Task: inverse folding
């Protein structure tokens, strides 16, 4: 059951093959959670941004660089994403976007 759930999440988020294998996105109720190992990188070395519904993570220092990307498929509240880097582990909390209520549109004559 867990592997089926993970496959659905991976296909939903359209992760790259590199991320599927090493950095699964976990559905934790009201949020999605993801962890990335960034040993050797400090807070000042890591840049995280959202552009065109895609989360980009770039880690770069004098010795090396790593890049990750995660397609959000309009399912994450981008302004409320939380990131914490501690002991080389980047923890991301991706709050789910609230389900919009439908609005009826009146047709004018």
Result:
């Amino acid at each position: 059951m867990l592997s089926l759930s993970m496959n659905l999440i991976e296909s939903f988020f359209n992760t790259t093959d590199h991320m599927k294998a090493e950095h699964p996105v976990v559905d934790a109720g009201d949020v999605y959670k993801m962890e990335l190992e960034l040993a050797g990188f400090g807070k000042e070395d890591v840049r995280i941004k959202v552009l065109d519904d895609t989360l980009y993570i770039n880690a770069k220092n004098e010795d090396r660089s790593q890049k990750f990307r995660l397609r959000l498929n309009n399912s994450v509240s981008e302004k409320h994403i939380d990131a914490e880097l501690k002991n080389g582990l980047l923890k991301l909390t991706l709050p789910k976007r609230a389900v919009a209520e439908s609005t009826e549109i009146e047709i004018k004559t």
